[in-house]
Amino acid sequence: MTGLALTELTLSHFRSHKAARLTLDPGPIAVHGANGAGKTNILEAVSLLSPGRGLRRAAAEAMVRRPEALGWKVSAVLRSLHQMHEVETFSEEGTSRQVRIDGKAATQVALGRIARVLWLIPSMDRLWIEGADGRRRFLDRMTLSFEPTHAEATLTYEKAMRERNRLLKDQVRDAAWYSALEAQMAKAGAAIHANRQACVAQLIEAQKEAETAFPTADLLLTQADGEMPEDTDALLEALQSSRPRDLLAGRTLIGPHRADLSATYAAKGVAAKDCSTGEQKALLVSLILANGRALIAEFGAPPILLLDEVAAHLDADRRAALYDEIIALGAQAWMTGTGPELFDTLQSRAMFVEVGEESGISFLKGTS
Q1: What tens digit of pLDDT does each residue of 330-341 get?
Q2: Please, are residues 144 and 150 in contact by the beta-carbon 8 Å criterion?
Q3: How confident is the model over 70-98, as pLDDT tens digits?
């Protein structure tokens, strides 16, 4: 069987889960239980099977179960297209997160080559009305699903920019101190911009071809200070030219870290930030589904989807439409809610997992 899905998931001392194991179906997974039972913790564990800091963006030491603080591990068997992989990510006694694939030490970029994971969580409901940082992270997660090296480019750029900003704050004016850092930023920054542009183009195309109950979003990649230099040489020249202005500000004022993603509810011609809460949520869902459709053509399978409290701000009809589209997409979609009644229209089409607590050991009861 082809596709992209976890067939087994094991948690050890991860967040609220002392020990938990699931054998999984390839389709939708409805995770339900009382507030505080640890539903979101399970989704966070799955998110760590892809590059980055996971859906909570937490440090490794914050994920360990208390009070033991023994370190944590997330293990999974991943079916990726025609291959099966054993994947582990873990932290030992506060150390930084490590990765093993098929028993061998691996990088997070290597994770991105075999797994594509996207998520929507409640804090993202305000994505269109808050700062650009969140929209860049949202765009970069989608971009990473198309281009696994995007994470590496982003890390390289951010590390070099932090060093450059330190020089700027210290009012260092000797150009020799900046040259190597700006060269790194220019190369990585041009790659980041090109990757983001390609992602936006693929999302636009995927929306055009889809018949969906969710609204189409007109997307535009914008820049805080006008145009983003398109290639390495142009960005390097811009960084060099901007140095006097950056010295006054004490930080870098040009580059892909100043980008933003704007969206418009196409059928109404209304900017996403001016839409109702329900419309804003529907636009986010629409983009995640479009990303999934585009990945089927690009990667060969839809991503694993993590939809935390997905029923929030969706009425019963739109919720049912979402479940139908997930089934049509063929994605393993992990969805959380307080009760199984929220997933009634899925019925026999999903695996239901009840989350509770028994004697300090996580209780996960799965039914197909």
Answers
A1: 999 999 999 999
A2: yes
A3: 899 999 999 999 899 999 999 998 789 99
HSE, side-chain direction, 13 A CA sphere, residue 65:
22
What is the CATH code for 1-116+300-368? Answer: 3.40.50.300
Per DSSP, the residues of 14-69 read ETTEEEEEEE--SS-EEEE--TTSSHHHHHHHHHTTSSSSTTTT--GGGGB-TTT-
Q: Flag whether pLDDT at 359 surpasses 60.
A: no
Nearest to residue 231, comparing CAs of 268, 197, 208? 197
Helix (H) or strand (E) holding 265: strand 259-265
Return the beta strands (E) in 58-214 as ranges: 72-80, 83-91, 98-101, 104-106, 117-120
| Integer Cα distance of 346 and 102 in angstroms | 34
Domain with CATH 3.40.50.300 in the chain: 1-116+300-368
* The CATH number of the domain covering residues in 134-298: 1.20.1050.90
DSSP 8-class letter at 176: H
